[in-house]
Structures
1.
Amino acid sequence: MAETKACPKCGAELPDNAPSGICPKCLMQAGLESEQDVGSAAEMNPTTLWSGFVPPEPEDLAKFFPQLEILELLGKGGMGAVYKARQPGLDRLVAVKILPPEIGSDPAFTERFTREARALAKLTHQNIVSIFDFGQADGLYYFMMEYVDGANLRHVIETGAIKPEEALAIVPQICEALQFAHDEGIVHRDIKPENILVDKQGRVKIADFGLAKLLGKAPAEVTLTGTHQAMGTLHYMAPEQMQGAAAVDHRADIYSLGVVFYEMLTGELPMGRFEPPSKKVQIDVRLDEVVLRSLESTPDRRYQHASDVKTDVESIVAASDTRFPAAQPETAEFESLVRGRMKVPAIGLRVAGIVNLLAALLFVLIMVLVPGSEVFSMRTMIFVVLALLSLVQGIILVIGASRMFDLQSYRIAVLAAVVAILPCAPGFLISLPFGIWALIVLSMGNVQTAFARESEREQMMKESGSAVV
Amino acid sequence: MSAGHTSSPDSRRALASLCETYWYPLYAYVRRRVPDVSEAQDMTQAFFAELLEKNYVGSATPDRGRFRAFLLTAFKHFLSKQWEKAKAQKRGGGRAPIPLDFESADSSIRIEPASGITAEQFYDQQWAIALLGQIIKQLEAECEQSGKSKLFEELKGFIIGDHIGTSYGQVAEKLNLTEAAAKKAASRMRRRYRELLREEIAQTVEGPDKVGDEIRNLFNTLEL
């Protein structure tokens, strides 16, 4: 076994077939560094562009776009300004994004612009802001995109605390968009709440795809001590991106997704030694794993595909559907056990109840049929009383028994059992033993719980039933 | 990518030379999958014969795929076809096979599945190494032609940049140059190396703008 040597520069083990004994990793890296040397002279430093850029007023912009009605300035971002506009012919609203004019002075830019814009225009997806048109208007580079009537995630997070359910509805849509773009070979590189729009129907739309690459590097990448805006972006940037490492691929987007996810759930950014989200808000513990895995510093340990994040989130959401708690099987078994216990005494009481009802009927018949004394004689009175008692007790027993069967209305069940013990009707002989039995069963702790649960469930079903339109 | 676009003799020659450089990663890949050495050798040989004969590359879609990925995919298809047929493929059917130096390949190959990387990743790594090896060889040849072999030998370590281990002072002495001259020579060689690297990679991807990405990807795989 040949002794293995190490590279004097990076310390890695040299493979046996290392070219001329030189470390292949360092060689490859050397090939990369050149790119930066070659590029830096011609490349515009993006930070200088944005700081001086003052977006024109809508009226002033209108002369660049005679075919549009420029309505208002929506915002100025790190990569230009966005306006709301209207296409009179089609009578639809669009968003027009213009890039800072200085950018046009780089000759290589036009070529890159066209190429990138074409690639971006191919991204047709319901969760990606569509690009309708792009080009130059009197030297001003622009994109015309779909107008999203809503707010960006930054506003949403800042104004109202996003509820976990909402976050869990948003994340899968982001994943879909990312996966689609990644499949087309496009990496966003600048995923952050400002770039994630949510329209009034709650649909997520991601904007500014690929623009980071188009414009050179994202402003924050160039200098770590940039403006406040640039600093803000840093938090969402994957570690490999921040270090300026060469091997930045689609997994950087997944890291940014993790940061956004964490922020949506907890309202805070995952910095330093941060707590898992389930410790900060009431969510399923399994989501911690999803978030943490997305936030892995090493790309290889992260989720490798956005679609995997989506799958995991969706399966956790499905499993923790609180309408029918996961303990359901347990409950069912437990429930049937209790029902079993309740069955016999309930039957007994039902029988006794029926007997009582029959007896009441009998008494009434006797009263009516047997000829006798005056209406208010002693005998009649007795019969009337007996009939009434039997009737009442019979009814109570029958109702109580059916409540016992359904494990509903614990109080009524107990009442029935108590009544069953009272010697006031002919069915007493039957109802006494069953009544005692019923009381014993009803006094058991787990039986009470079962009753309580069942009533709750009934309640919820009634409520949700009324909510369904 | 000249090798793939037409079926002219020019493109065939380009393809043949590409194959000469990059057969080893494929061999490394198949060795990971097939324990029997001679079967692995046969497969590799046969694949290249078929590749050149039928000029597969012409059918590769131009806007998708690097040659590197294409080659592996084609090889995988080929392998599964062969294994289905389950018969030994004759070596190129009488044609002179491409001289593949299996002997030295086998001696330098380390087949143990190291640290859980897949066969495909291993292929990518070996591709990267083969590529770099080719470049360094070219560079060496160039230096030799202009009588600068000694220069190459001493300064090649600096292609990757400055690092502890050598100093320009020492090297300058050996080469009878001033330190400044040595530094300049090293930087010139570095630049030439980069040019050659990017040229070579440009041959295997579909546009000069994809070169950077390919370098990054390869660097990535080497990091595994």
Note: Chain A is about 55% helix and 10% strand.
2.
Amino acid sequence: MGELILMKGNEAIAEAAIRAGCRFFAGYPITPQNEVPEYISKRMPEVGGVFVQAESEVAAINMVYGAAGAGARAMTSSSSPGISLKQEGISYMAGADLPAVIINVVRAGPGLGGIQAAQSDYFQATKGGGHGDYRLIVLAPGSVNELANMVMDAFDIADRWRNPVMVLADAVLGQMMEPVDFPEEIVDPGALPKKPWATAGMKGRGHQNVVNSLYLHPEECEASNLDRMARYKKATEDETRWEEVQLDDADIVLVAYGTSSRVCRNALDQARDEGLKVGMIRPITLWPYPQEPFDRVAGDVKAFIAVEMSTGQMVEDVKIAVNGRAPVHFHGRTGGVLPKVSDVVKVIRTAAEGSDTE
Amino acid sequence: MDVAFKRPEALTDKVTHYCPGCTHGIIHRLVGEALDSLGVQEKTIGVASVGCSVFSYEYFNCDMQQAAHGRAPAVATGIKRVHPDAVVFTYQGDGDLASIGAAEIVHAAMRGEKITVVFVNNAIYGMTGGQMAPTTLVDQVTTTSPRGRDVENYGKPLRVSEMLATIDGVDYLSRVSVHDPKHIIQAGRAIKKAFQSQLDGNGLSLVEVLSTCPTNWGLSPKESLKWLADNMGPYYPLGEYRVDGEVVKG
């Protein structure tokens, strides 16, 4: 273990990116993620990297497209309304098989919503967001330390599958301070595997490289999409991550990610003190979604309870994962309001009695 | 036997998809000749835009990226900042640059991005079938201005070079035409100067090239050249607007 550093989540994101070899960042100001570009604007010149404050979210993501296509480890960060604007570039990057990291420090919506933490961008992150047949690999941190380490992993995952990766944080994770334990190794971007497909000039190669997502013939576009889907299938096998909390003897299983999983952890402890056998599945990758723990316990549990900071988005994936093998309940707060531990405990009690909580 | 005339190295041998009489082919050639004469083909990265020139990555024999509609200057910014020693250019039409990409070109110019922009203005959307562009002339009939562009609803056409000439990040800026051999030669010189400006590293360089669209103008190739000279010429004055970062016109 290295030295623990007390850091704000947003600053941890920025420092992690630089330690992961990110040398290009373009962004646009939006609360609650402003410390990310601010920190990077200071830090990037120290490592010979590029920081650009773009004229818009749209320009920022397209700068990242250009930089990623040119072979750099590139990142942008924003918050919900800004991420909506970036969907064009995200779709194009997926279509052109470009690796890049996109940070969403989620705030409440729709519209301008509010600057408090929410989880209401789950659909947008995991079900497409932009147009076309693609997926984003979506990582959901539950602490500042996990957020920092996840941002570093995100660059490796993006390069491995040549696909954009989104880290779905929220205003709580972005704004709070917690100890961070960075990996000892700091990535030297010059030592990373070469990207033979990148546009860096033809010299020494003898043929042109083209970064492109356009196909004149539908069969070619289909072949490209199917190739991507084949990669996604392998990525599902290799990258799916989740955490299990006291799942072995659980009758009631909470399902929550990110900040709401922290509320659930406290609720779980209180319910256990009352003698209720409660466990939790915490998806760490939201796409691919962790099917395996559901398959293992679905036949033995009384009920699942999805807890979210939304009106119910991930709960749909919980229902798909459970596939009718047990009742699925939902508890959520929205608009930037956090779920209360006492309310989650109440839902657990009701589910344990076998009543409908909805 | 000496070769007197050949395809530039910076162009591929693919047959283009452009309509008969379209001047994209001439402009591609001028860009190719400029890259050849400066000896930079192998360190050039081009950015294709959306519109008729969308497939230009098939025709320019250098590394290429395809950008979303209007975003080529942003994509080029990303490329150039990662490879500051590369020659980076965008090739954009007037719908792409002057309409959906107006913000991107203005801010790339403001930042003085060391890129070259080849801006092909034919006063119409070509690829999508002849709709009105910000550059469409007053009273010009298009598929979305069937009674002609009216000033009451759409104002007068945007003069991009005049607008960009006010921005200090622009090092070289010129408007040229390709409607006859004399002007083609002048256009070639301007494009080469623009790339030289990029090599000198002083800011953004842009050449606006007045171009034809016989198919969507509903004119023959020959009539189109005359229409360009007679109608676009007066509204879009030719000449250098900025040289070495100084305003010389506009």
Note: Chain A has a mean pLDDT of 97.
3.
Amino acid sequence: MDALISLATAIGQVATPVSLFNVAWATLLGMCVGMMPGLTATLGIALLTTLTFRMGAGDAILILICMYVGAIYGGSRTAILLNIPGTPANAASALDGFPLARAGRAGEAMGLATVGSFFGSIIGLILLALIAPQLAEFGLKFQSYEFFWLAVFGVVISGRLTAMDDPLKGWIAGFLGLFLAQVGQEGIHAHQRFSYGSVDLAGGFGLLPALVGAFGFAEILCVMKQPAYRTVRDMGDRVLPRLRDVINRWWTILRSGLLGTVMGIVPGVGEDMGAWVSYAAARRASREPGAFGKGATEGLIAAEAGNNAAVPGAIIPVLTLAVPGSAPAAVLLAAMFIHGVRPGPLIMIENPDFIMQVAAMLFWASVAILVFGLALTRPMLFVLRVRREHLMPIVFVLCVVGAFAIASRVFDVWVMLGFGILGFALRQMNYPMAPLVLGIVLGDILDKNFRRGMVLSDGSFEPFVTRPISAVLAALTIVTILLGLGPVRRAISEFRRRRD
Amino acid sequence: MTRTPRADFWFSILLTAFGAAVTFESWRMPRLENLGIDPMSAPGLTPGLLGVVLTGLGLALFARGVRAEPDPEPVETEAGWGRFAVTLALCLGYALVLLGRLPFWAATAIFVAAFVLAFTWRERPAWRTGLVGVALALVVAMTVTLLFERVFLVRLP
């Protein structure tokens, strides 16, 4: 109860005229970014980090959170109208959203997606306010051994869940990310690794240039390689959802909000899995599972509530363990460090109000998507009419400026280009990007804590597997790997087939 | 299981070789014993471990690639790869050649105009296509330069 009172107080404190102005433009910009195929929440936050790094920490983080929430929501428009997910998180929304639009119910679909996203986000932020302080306190028990396993588990679970058909590729992406983070000066003895005398390489690969490349330049190459998407002219039906349609779906919204938040908390899994898991749960629980994929409003609401609930969910481990729950959350984490905020287990000691401030920022961003989503449906269709030949060169210019501006290093532009080409090649071979990003973020945590742990244990691996939390994380890692192995998966399917 | 078996096969060889190289380079790294440093905190320890894991993952991918059936019919068209090549060339030309040699606004204007015209030059009427490309290029170059330099106080390349 105290947490909810603190949340209400924080919501009031954040509502200054300047902050609300920032909420309005940043959320609207986020919605536009999410709506445009080829622009993702990760790229939007990375580019805005460049623009806001001279602002105060509070304003900058508010703007980035609004971009995050707006972009994840905005992608539903494209999914509904074009059958192309605006961001990867909206893929599940296209399954029922597009059939609804084809049936002349595009307005209704967008209205329901808006309400689903709003309530999903609200459920997520309430859970953030309730869980994060407890998790931060729990995180104080983590030592080097536990952080080592947390890094390994994060990469393994992210690789498993973001590449369900082919976990091997998810793990390759994750461990490649962990290795890329080893390049440059290491954090214990300041020794330069894999730099071969290059001053630039000694500084390592910057996270933001790498992300701008992997999510910006790679996406430009992918979008330009695809055939052009058709533009949308108009939709004629009502946008404002009927109250009874929303009330009848309260259980779907609540369940999806909870599932989405939980999926958000799992390191590196994020919004797309939040949407898919919520969608699958709604289909299993539905009286008409056959209608899913053919324009079921319940499926659309579940997917949108799930992906938007995953946004606060993904911020929970960022705040409490400094481990991102998704790729956009990884950029948010980097932005927090740039602005002098130190997320992690000590946050409740060093900056106790910050968790509630973040929850309050999420609240205002959610209100903004509800208002703009319902009020500006028709004007925002204009965004979808922008041609890719006009949009993509502008995005590339922003990628170059974004990569350069943080440290004014030309090397960062090269890093952006390199990661863009690497990201494009990996995508063409169906490698997921989220584990790669998570690996880059967790690489330093893995390295320092593994070596510290080995020094503390005098070279013994025993504490890594005998301390209670370490043992649980190690067991979870092993189970996740086993469940992803081909023979084990085939044996499980065979067992299920025989049982049925 | 996999939809790109041929690419996976070649990538697995690359990954295995890369993992082995990382392990070898990590082994060669100084252990800083002359500075009295605990060998368990040697800089090459974690990268060495990751090199071994990458080699293992590469071998697993290789074993699967050997058993995999040939690629299904390619879905992409040559036109798609053509658009990709033009995009890559224009972007690399802008970032590696134009920037640094020309003022930012001029390099950006040339890049945007070239990009738009490269993909729309067949559209008619030609004068309109050209006008749109040039106008967009000038507006983007000026807006980005002014916005970043004057409003956000960001240094441009």
Note: Residues 126-151 of chain B form the longest helix (26 residues).
4.
Amino acid sequence: MIAPAVGVIFDGFAYGMLLFLLSVGLSVTLGLMNFVNLAHGAFAMLGGYVAATLMNTLGWPFLATLPMAFLLTGVVSVGFERTLYRRLYRAHDLDQVLLTIGLVFISVAAAAFFYGTQQQPVRLPDYLRGYTTLIGVNFSHYRLFLIVVALAVTLALVLALERTRFGAQVRAAVDNQRMAQGLGINVELVFAVTFALGSGLAGLGGALAIEIVGLDPNFAFAYLIYVLIVVAVGGLGSIRGSFLAAVLLGVSDAAGKYYLPSLGSFLIYLVMISLLLWRPSGLFGRAPT
Amino acid sequence: MSARQAVDPHRHLSEGRRWRAVEIVFWLATLLPFVVVPSYLTLASQIAITAIFAVSLDLILGYAGLVSLGHAAFFGLGAYTAGLLAKAGWGEPLSGLLVAAAVAGLFGWLSGFVVVRVRHLALIMITLGIGLLLYEMANRESWLTGGNDGLQGVALWKLLGRFDFDLYGYTAYGYALVVLLLVVLVARRLIHSPFGLSLRAIRENERRMPAIGAPSRARLHTVYTIAAAIAGLAGGLLAQTTQFVDLSTLGFQRSADLLVMLALGGTGRLYGGIVGAIVFMIARDQLADMNPQYWYFWIGLLLVGVVLFLPNGILGGLARLLPLERNQAGR
């Protein structure tokens, strides 16, 4: 009775950590610029394909591909930010939605063109395979590794945001963009760097996700919805909110699949709608002033 | 506009209501498929149905400024209502269509309580969530909806007791065209009424409207319900003319495609969605041999291009070239 429950919570927590990595960047950039970036999932997919290519074509070890997935995705994303996104910061939601949906369509087609529609294989090093059994529960090594990475990233993010000068600038810009600009903070630069970091984290999440959920051209759409749920429920610009929302979503998804498989994703959508009705700016978001 | 004296609102509205020559030419041109390309009448009826659907989205998106990613919920609801009604033995098309619109409108009214409360990301997520919720529900209740196989055995009676739904689509296209015309007439009347004017004002500045005595939420709720009913009408038409309903009527893809069409044609211009539907559907038909994945590559490129270079869509671009639409209250 207890062992399956622990197993479900463990798997759900690991899944939640993955969702956190995939979505935290979007939460911060949305809080900063209020730009509805539906292409965030496409950046995560890019990270996944970077890792898969390095591993399968160039024979890199798994761990070495992770920083590259982070870096390359960050660089590519900032290219898009500088050329396309920045033109629409003051535009209506609709234009932002259309532009970024367009980018998702393009990325899905491009991934299918270059890699085909099949799932990408992943070769894990031996020490990440297998599992350890404790009190009758199988703890997969890979999921433990995922949790450790995500917690390390969270810690680094929180420290960077609360202890560094750049972090203070980001917080100031999220709080009040005009005021921050008036104080001499280069908000555009802050935003570009944050955007690159956030998309890079999505890329890292995409690379780490291959083992758990697989990678095919539909990734950009399939996980977009989960990412958006985390961001909307957690509240824009809130790392704490994203973390809690991701854990909540991960655990309830795992629990739902285990205990109420007939309900499918039904429950999650229902919970999201009710939460947003209760708090339209998310659990930890502040009401718009 | 700036130098002009205060405009009498009634005159402003009645000027907008006047029929322009382009419109009359357009409606005459919709009769052409009967003579010129009778083999494409099925496609033409699908275009007309999609155009109705696009007009309904334009009412809430183009005029009232509510971005919805789940408008297919109402389309699918209308389609399943009409389909199930016919399957259950009541195959009379017109009453079936009205019931479809009523059911979708009722659901629109109910979900409207939720939708008008939120903005921005929360609005996008809630409309998306409602759409996904209905899709999941239809998928799960396959005893009713047929699940992935779709709804089989939809049998319609003759339209008005005289016109059979033929294989070539004469009846289907005529039927869809008449409904489209009626929908456009209603939408036109709505847009060029004080109510329509207040919707545009809400789009421009939502907080100011209550200050001058117009309740924003109540107005948005009304137009959301109307748009839902019209979307249900479109869905019901599709079910009746194809005598088949499947889950794709509720899918996210349909909502996304609709947004693409509307943006392509131009939002807030009434005919934008119709033009967008014509261009989009004909292009898709012509490129049908293409792998759908690559078709979406071009759609994506088109979207990026439209957003960056043609922000008011095809009609907006034309209006800039020709001073025809000066009186149109587009953006």
Note: Chain A has one domain: 2-278.
